[in-house]
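Re: export button greyed out
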Amino acid sequence: MSLRTIRLYARAMFLAFEMTLRQNFTDMFVLFGIFVQPLIIALLAFWMLQERGSDYIIFVVVGSGMTGLWTTVLFSSGSNITRERWTGTLELLVGAPVPIQVVIFGKNLADVLQSLGSMLLSYTLAILIFGQIPEIIQPELFAVSLMIAVISYVCFGLIVSPVFVMNPNVQRLQNGLEFPIYILSGFLFPIALLPNWTTPLSYILAPYWAARALHATSSGGADFKEIALTWGMMILFSLVYLIASGKLFKTLLYKARVEASLLRQ
Amino acid sequence: MIKKLSLNLRLFFEGALLSYIALFHWLRPAQYLATKVWGPLVYMLFFVFLGKFATGQDNTSFYVIGNAIQSVALSGIYGVSMSIDGDRWDGTLPYLFGAPANRMTVFVGRSFMHIIDGVLGAVIGLTWGVLLLGLDLSHSDPFALGLTILITTFSTSGLGLLLGCLGLITRNVMFVNNTVFFLLLVFSGANVEIQTLPAWAQVISQALPLTRGIAAARQIIAGESLSHVLPLLAVEFSIGVGYVFLGYTLFRWFELIAKKRGTLEAI
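Workaround output, generated via the alternate export path:
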């Protein structure tokens, strides 16, 4: 791939990013998932975990923020292709020389970065409720973890979106997919509480490794080796998701052309 | 007089049935099952595990009962409000407002099927609790528990009717519904003991439907009799009636506003 092509793709990705960001700020459903729901979950978790003392404040801030990230990937990023179809712009995107995967990556990046706002809001809520500033124990490692987590969520979104388009029945069950990932990823409680048979399911989810990395670096209690493992797993899963999504997008576009279903509602 | 009464009854039941069919005509069985069976199970599991982590002890039944009863809000809030709001989206609102039908009959009729559906939702939630989470219903009086669920669903539907009215003047009624549903998880006592909430939050709890219904259900499942929880149920019912009347008043008021502004069909 030449430097010019990379620049071209980056430009398309940035434009998709900017457009999505602007659209999201006018969509109350998206804003609810990004800001309101995580904030209410944070409030609930603060009150439920109050007996555990102030050590859990940062745990709740990070955990509730992660619920916002997943909700956004599921509902917003998951519908990124479907939304283009609804607005009649999918044909144009598919016909453009830039691969549609690049455009969807930019859109997902906007969704995920925007949903980090939920963590900031939860942080502010914690300050308002407890009158103290929650401390991130390893800020540098936390920042790196957050960066890798964002990439892994964006890549996860690249899988979700074509799967939903190719299997409308799966998208119809979207609401039922939100809380299982909250549970399996250990956003607000350790997965050790769950039955043993669920552990392998958690291990194949990037959000689980993201939660582990972010909780470990914000609340402390993990050595660098363990944090490096979580980073490695997130990068590994991001690559797996990217490769798988490449195949999914190829199949999706092939099917859409054969069945002439690009504009099907 | 009898003719008028029978006309209103027909309007009530036909309206109830048709609005229910209209709301769910786009739902496939799998989608309905995901919403009514799978959905309540997964959010119940989430709060049960969070509760176990929070208290460090096995309080499973507290969270199972709280969230099973809270699931009536799926029908009471979303179902009912979407039935009212749906007329605007489907373009049938002008016909509804143009008809000579009794507004109260039309308005309350919208919630009837959702109350039945909500009761079913709570029963499904409790069944999950018994099958998967070891909930013990052996000490409970089935009639008292059934009555509690029915009254709680009614009162929650009252709030749903009120929220549905907002759909007549705003396009963002789903945002309001979602927010209220999640706030109920916090303030209804489904997941946090009311007495451990800050004083201002307790005031909010007391004004909401569900709060007393959940408390009554917990007491009945613990073995208390119907007469013991009757005062709680009486207040829960009164709160429901209050919300229905508030909703109805707003319904008539918004009808006037929508007609004045010409926004009956604006979506």
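The mean pLDDT of chain B is 86. The button fix ships in the next patch.
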